[in-house]
Amino acid sequence: MHYFLQVVYTTMQAISFAVFQPWFFIILYLMYWMYKKNQEIEVQSVFLVKTKVYEKMVQSTLSGILVGIGLSIILIYFGIPMHFSAHMAFLLPIALLLALFNFRYLCFSYAGGILGIISLIFRGQKIFTYVVPNINLDIPSIIALVGVLHLMEAWLVFLEGAADSIPIVIQKDNKVAAAYMMQRFWPLPFTLLIMDFVTAVPQQGLIETPNWWPVLKNIIESPSPATILIYSVIPITAVLGYGDIAVSTEPEKKSRKTAILLVFYSLTLIIIAIMSPQRLWLQFLGVILMPLLHEVLIVGSQRKERLSEPLYTYPDKGVRIHELKPEGVAEKIGMKRGDIIVKINGIEIENDRHMQAILNNYYTFLWFDVISVYGEKKYFEYKAYPDGINDIGIIPLMKYHIRVYRLENMENVGLFRMIKK
User: Fold this and answer.
1) pLDDT digits over 323-376, tens only?
2) 402 is a domain residue
C-alpha cells in the first residue's frame, strides 16, 4: 500500500508539471478554436447549440487529465518502462503540423511513423564523402508510446466519442438524410516510466519497489559495466482526437465499435514494441504498421459509410426527429434522435408543416405514435394543462434544407481549409 501511494504521489507531481507546460496551453487553444468552428456548423444545421464551447472544453480537459492520471499510475505501478530519446519531443509538433492538412493526422501514429522512418534512414552512415546525421531514436519506445496513447484514446472514445455529436444534413443518391458528425479532442498530460543508464544513483526521490517490479524487464543493454540502470518518471503532453460521421448507424454504436478496434490496434503495437528491441526487421514493420493500420481503420470506416444506406432518411410520411431541443417536451417524454412521429392524437402526420398545423391547436393532452430508426413502434403521452402547447421541442429533418453536406467534403478537413473558410 505504501508503494502504491508513492506511485500516486509521483504521478500527480509529474502531471501537474505537464499541465503548466506551454504545449498544454497551445493544445487548449487549438481545441477551443476547433470546437468553436463545430459550433458554427451546429448553428447552421439545426439553429441551436446544445452544449456550449466552454462546457465541451471543461469536459474534454478533465477527461483527458483523469485518463492520463489513471494510465500513468498503471504504467508506473506495474513497471512498463520505455527508453526515451530527445528526438521523441518532435512527435507533438509534427502531429500539429500534419493537422493543417487533415484533422485525422492529429495523431502520433503518423508522426511516429515519420520519425521512425527518418531514424531508420539517418543512422550516421557515410554516403560518398558525406556522413549523414545519426538520429538516435529508440523505435520500440515510439511504437510502445503510440500503442499506449491509443489505449487511452480507445477508453475516451468509448466513453465520450458520441457525446455532443453534431446533426447535419447530407445528400446521397439524390436523397436527403440526417447524419451525425462526431469530433472530440482531449489534451493528455501523462507520465512515462523511462529507463536510462547512469554512473551514480541519485540520492533523492527514490522509491522502494516490490520484488516483482518491473513487469517488463530490461529491454536495453548497458553501454558499459560501470553504469547502473535506473527508472525515472517524466511528464509528457499529447493530444488525442476522434473524428467520424455516423450515417448508416447510431453515433453511440459507431464510437463503441471504433473504440474496440482501437484496443486491438493498440495491443498489436505494444506486442510489436516488446518483441522488437533486438529485431530491426520488426522495428521496420512496426514503423510501417503504425500509420498504415490507423489509416486502414479510418478510411475503411469512411468507405463503409459512403457505400451503406443512410439510417436517418427523409420519411415518405411523418416527421423524422433530426435533433431534440434541450429540456423540450420530446426529450422529457423519451423520444430519441432519428425517431419518426407518425401520428399525433390519432391524426396521421404528412410532413413537418402538417405537424405544426396540428400542434397550433394547443392541445392540453397529446399522444404520439412513433417509429424508431429500427422500426420499433413506440407510444408517448404528454399532459399540457391548462394552456396546451404548440412546440414539442424537436428540430425536424426537412426535405429542403439550407445547408446540405457531401460526405467526401466532410472527411478531408484540415486547419488550412478551416482557416481559409
Assistant:
1) 999 999 999 999 999 999 999 999 999 999 999 999 999 999 999 999 999 999
2) no
Q: Give DSSP secondary structure letters for 30-84.
A: HHHHHHHHHHHHHHHHHS--SS-HHHHHHHHHHHHHHHHHHHHHHHHHHT--B--
| Residues 296 and 341 both lie in one domain | no
Q: Alpha-carbon distance 191 to 204, whole Å? A: 19
Task: Tell whether 80 and 211 lie within a shared domain.
Answer: yes
Question: Do 296 and 322 reside in the same domain of the chain?
Answer: no
If one counts the domains in the chain, the total is 2
What was the pLDDT predicted at 162?
A: 93
Q: What are phi and psi of 396, to 5 degrees?
A: -80, 150
Q: Crossing angle, helix 22-46 and helix 53-78, to 10 degrees?
A: 140
C-alpha cell at 339: 425517431
Most confident of 80-89, 246-255, 304-313, 406-415: 246-255
Output the pLDDT for position 255: 93
The dihedral through the CA atoms of 67, 83, 26, 38 has a sign that is negative
Task: Report d(CA 139, CA 273) in Å as an integer.
Answer: 8
SS3 for 176?
strand
Segment 254-264 shows an average pLDDT of 94
**pTM (predicted TM-score):** 0.86
221 and 361 inside one domain:
no
Model pLDDT for residues 128-137, shown as the tens digit of each residue: 667 666 777 7
pLDDT band at 37 (very low <50, low <70, confident <90, very high): confident
Residue carrying the nine cell digits 509538433: 93
Average pLDDT over residues 222-228: 71
Q: Grid coordinates representing 303?
A: 468507405
Q: Show the domain range for 336.
A: 315-396
Please answer whether residues 42 and 49 qualify as being in contact, where contact means their C-beta atoms are separated by less than 8 angstroms. yes
User: Do 299 and 388 share a structural domain?
Assistant: no
Q: Cis before residue 315, ω within 30 degrees of 0?
A: no
Quick one: 227 and 337 in the same domain?
Answer: no
What pLDDT was estimated at residue 62?
96
Asked if residue 8 and residue 88 are part of one domain, the reply reads yes
**Final residue of a structural domain among 252, 277, 307:** 307
Q: Do 59 and 176 have their domain in common?
A: yes
